[in-house]
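Quick log. Single chain, no ligands specified.
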Amino acid sequence: MEINDLLLDDPEGLAVGDPAGMLAATAGAGGFMRAAAGTLDVDAVERLADDGRPRAVVVVGGGGSTAAGDILNAVAGLGSPIPVITSSGPSLPGWVGPTDLVVAVSGSGSTQETLASVSEAVRRGCRLAAICPAKSELAQIVGADRSAQLLALSQPADGRPLRARALLWSLATPLLLLGGRIGLVDDAPAAIARAADSLDDIARTCGPVVPIGENPAKQLALEVGQSWPVIWGTGDVGAVAAQRFSRQLAENAGLPSSCGA
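-> predicted structure:
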């Protein structure tokens, strides 16, 4: 694949080649984290916490939404007092029951596999929560269950594709804050604030106006675009990051890669 390094130092040219606004969404990741934390229904989180710690947390999501569950599992780590399981549906593991908390995660609120898993969770009498747009099919299913809690996802109505709305951060932030409230994540609000600040720093260092010689993201783009990258992650969090990087290369750049931990 030929990479035009002159284009990388042309912000206007980059904007033309990025009609979905992926660069702007990525640069605004810190803001998405703060927005998700600021619009979280704290009362709903408290009601979930008041029910006591579940036997297990089962995060249900389709496609890229599974990354939010992977992040919670990685951050909770081996020291987690309960297991955190990620399931892509359409059915739940056979052992999941009323003492477990099922959290459905969906940027659209209409993923069929997720809807099927949530309907099954309702039939089994599981504790249930959802992170999704307030006006969505998933929200309606959760809203019909009086014991379920909706942690509504704030989404900008700007017509951009879902993948261009920094959904990873919008979905993972409420989940991490919930995890903090039930004792799976240490000092989650402070950790979220630090992560948002770090993302802002990276956006300034790697922005389109920063020249190649000073921009690690542009240097990496040149190397990745002309090779078959092998992406390794160290530890639980590093493994999730490596997998996420590989998926994004495939979905947004159409580039193959290999990843592992």
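The beta strands are 57-60, 84-87, 101-105, 127-131, 149-150, 230-232, 258-260.
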